């Protein structure tokens, strides 16, 4: 039995933290001794290993008052950080008893103080200079919170007086100006002894605040940095402006937790600027990435730009530039110059701060189509003196360019030969060749070529003109040893018989009936 009991004890000591005993959640509150007229601060003592998951849920006072942080009632304040303040204590507060209740947000379990803390009020006899015994050097809040509390608690006799100041950071020196001198909505700022309360905090309230506690024996100060977080929001724009083909989210901008993807068509050889504008506070980091690689990054201070080294996908310089817009809006601009196939892909703008991150994605793709013929010409047999009209219509993106050849040589314009084209639709071009008073030597292989950045297509047919057959002059060719060389025999006239090639001092082709 002893062995089994030891085994059970051993297993219990190895249980993970989520199986803690309720007794481990019992907080403690120590007695406080405070000079009459000063401020008492009760702390709910929580074991260090539980502070990350356990918070103060309520304070229970022996006078029947129950406070749930953050709450301010009469002379009692329960701070968001868990402390209980009793302001301007007097003899009536002597032997006030307080208990705190805590909750483990991970397990949902609660615990309450078994032995309350007592307040003892001491009659002031000996003068003392002010001493700060409770302050929070850094406090954070979020836009949308009901209020934020900045404590600066001092003790002394005669009773201390408190003055609050705010730093003016846009001046040459670090100057602090009394809050009463600032153009602030008085309804949002209030002071109660050593407590500054800001209701409905905004990101513009983020600053350094100074509290000076003084009596006729001296003065002390404490400084508190307040950060009011506002949700990060991204907006992506392009220059020139491109119309998105599709977007996975109907929102143009992205907020924390709601990434979106916008598909944008691009054209080969053009240039494009991707502008990522970030709103919110604070913005600690903004960067552009592609396929997991960081292309451009801006970290605090945002004026510092860190271009990444060149990669196989994109050159690092000089495609990037960065600027910061006014009104606390930050922009990180990625310039893509002379777009090539390697620029296709997913570009992600990511912004982050201590509370989280948000991102938005743009997919760049080439919205081009290889040319296709919608109308072409057929083989023809004509008599001398007739007229010839050939048409080729092609469609594609970008708009194809159509060129003409005769026997693989560009057609030359003359008083008898005219060619031109016109655009009948946004992505369709029609080209034609007209030959008047056709001659036997106008016979040959007519070809139209439609090409754009996406590809090329060709169409060729033979036009024969009755007459005695012959061979048009052949062009000399120069080539390097090992290269391939091809020749086309430009036969004209009709009918013509067999075409043969001879090789001797010169290359020639023969045709006979």
How would you describe what is shown here?
This protein has 513 residues and is mainly β. It has 5 domains: 20-125, Immunoglobulin-like; 126-231, Immunoglobulins (Immunoglobulin-like), CATH 2.60.40; 240-365, Immunoglobulin-like, CATH 2.60.40; 369-467, Immunoglobulin-like, CATH 2.60.40.10; 468-511, no CATH class. Helix content is 2%, strand content 53%. Strands 12, 14, 15, 18, 19, 21, 23, 27 and 28 form a 9-stranded mixed β-sheet that branches. The termini are far apart. The model is unreliable at 1-23, 246-258 and 300-327 (pLDDT under 50).
What would CATH call the homologous superfamily of the largest domain? Immunoglobulins
Number of strands: 43
Low-confidence stretches: 1-23, 246-258, 300-327
| Sheet with most strands | 9 strands, mixed
* Oligomeric status: single chain
Would you identify the CATH architecture of the largest domain? Sandwich
CATH topology of the largest domain, by name, is Immunoglobulin-like
Through-space gap between termini: 120 Å
Q: What is the count of helical runs? A: 1
Radius of gyration: 42 Å
The first-level CATH class of the largest domain is given as: Mainly Beta
């Amino acid at each position: 039995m002893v062995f089994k009991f030891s085994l059970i004890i051993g297993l219990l000591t190895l249980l993970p933290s989520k199986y803690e005993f309720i007794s481990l959640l019992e907080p403690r509150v120590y007695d406080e001794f405070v000079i009459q007229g000063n401020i008492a601060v009760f702390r709910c003592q929580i074991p260090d290993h539980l502070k990350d998951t356990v918070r103060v849920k309520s304070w229970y006072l022996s006078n029947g008052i129950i406070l749930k942080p953050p709450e301010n009632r009469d002379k009692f304040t329960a701070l968001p950080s868990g402390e209980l303040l009793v302001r301007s204590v007097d003899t009536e507060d002597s032997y006030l008893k307080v208990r705190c209740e805590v909750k483990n947000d991970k397990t949902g379990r609660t615990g309450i103080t078994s032995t309350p803390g007592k307040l003892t009020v001491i009659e002031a006899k000996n003068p003392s200079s002010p001493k700060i015994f409770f302050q929070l050097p850094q406090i954070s809040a979020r836009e949308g919170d009901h209020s934020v509390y900045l404590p600066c608690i001092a003790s002394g006799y005669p009773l201390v007086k408190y003055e609050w100041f705010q730093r003016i950071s846009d001046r040459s020196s670090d100057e602090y100006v009394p809050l009463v001198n600032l153009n602030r909505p008085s309804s949002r700022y209030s002071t109660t002894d050593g407590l500054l309360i800001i209701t409905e905090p905004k990101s513009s309230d983020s600053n350094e605040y100074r509290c000076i506690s003084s009596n006729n024996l001296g003065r002390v100060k404490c400084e508190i940095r307040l950060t009011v977080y506002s949700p990060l929001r991204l907006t992506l724009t392009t220059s020139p402006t491109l119309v998105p083909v599709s977007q996975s989210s109907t929102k143009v901008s992205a907020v924390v937790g709601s990434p979106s993807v916008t598909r944008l068509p691009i054209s080969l050889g053009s240039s494009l600027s991707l502008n990522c504008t970030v709103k919110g506070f604070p913005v600690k980091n903004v960067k552009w990435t592609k396929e997991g690689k960081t292309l451009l990054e801006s970290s605090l201070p945002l004026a510092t730009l860190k271009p990444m080294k060149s990669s196989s996908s994109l050159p690092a310089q000089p495609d990037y530039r960065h600027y910061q817009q006014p009104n606390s809006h930050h922009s990180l601009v990625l310039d893509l110059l002379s777009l090539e196939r390697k620029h296709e892909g997913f570009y992600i703008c990511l912004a982050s701060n201590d509370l989280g991150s948000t991102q938005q994605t743009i997919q760049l793709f080439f919205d081009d189509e290889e040319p296709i013929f919608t109308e072409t010409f057929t083989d023809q047999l004509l008599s001398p003196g007739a007229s010839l009209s050939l048409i080729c219509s092609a469609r594609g993106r970008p708009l194809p360019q159509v060129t003409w050849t005769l026997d693989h040589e560009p057609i030359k314009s003359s008083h008898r030969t005219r060619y031109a084209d016109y655009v009948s639709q946004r992505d369709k071009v029609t080209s034609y060749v007209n030959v008047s008073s056709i001659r036997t030597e106008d016979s040959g292989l007519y070809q139209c070529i439609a090409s754009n950045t996406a590809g090329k297509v060709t169409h060729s047919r033979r036009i024969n003109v009755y007459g005695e057959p012959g061979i048009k002059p052949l062009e000399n060719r120069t080539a390097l040893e090992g290269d391939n060389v091809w020749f086309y025999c430009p036969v004209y006239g009709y009918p013509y018989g067999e075409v043969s090639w001879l090789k001797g001092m010169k290359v020639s082709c023969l045709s006979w009936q």
